[in-house]
Amino acid sequence: xxxxxxxxxxxxxxxxxxxxxxxxxxxxxxxxxxxINGRSEPDYTTLCKIADALSVSTDYLLxxxxxxxxxxxxxxxxxxxxxxxERPGNGxxxxxxxxxxRPDGSAPHSLPSGWLRDAGSSPQSGEFRQPYxxxxxxDSMAPEIMxxxxxxxxxxxxxxxxxxQEAEKDLYGVRLDALDQVGTSLKRCHAxxxxxxxxxxxxxxxxxxxxxxxxxxxxxIGRVVSVWRSYLDSGLPRAIRxxxxx
Length: 246
Hints:
- The chain is an alpha+beta fold and 246 residues long.
- Helix content is 22%, strand content 23%.
- Residues 66-75 and 121-127 have low confidence and may be disordered.
């Protein structure tokens, strides 16, 4: 049933009618409706066609991506946004700082662009500091995370020599230089001895290789624990950019 719900959401997001999409796949509308309603599942060939047509991975369609997608009523649904770098004074414990992603070597984002309030309970502090969020503005993690999506990051201490190989499935907030106080890029990581290789979901993006013997800061700040999909509220990412440009 998970596949059907995700397929229905993607069709709505991309403004695709069921009739047009079925014709594009070369199947009947009733067959597509069976997929959406969970009465049947596509074969592998059809599944690949659906993924290609919607510009997502088959793992994403099947719900096998590691990042947990938030629903509107879930704990990671943000209900309020206030622009500016200063924390709101009223109910400050419930506000999460929001930073904009920085996939290249541009100047660090030392201050948040705004503050988000969680629809669920107040966020718990991490081992070192409170959680924070990142607005993705590039497609380095596409199709898993798209521009406009907001990633919720829980800070934690990550000591790379003891990282397990399963860590390659996790997504990290990564510092790009020693001046960063938060992870302003999202990457996966492979660890081998003192070498860290950060790579993106988008195969067009080159990996970043770091020798931990030559740098003096910890590049991984925390793990991404949930993602707020941009199609749940198309107005917030735009408001964040406009506030940051004022």
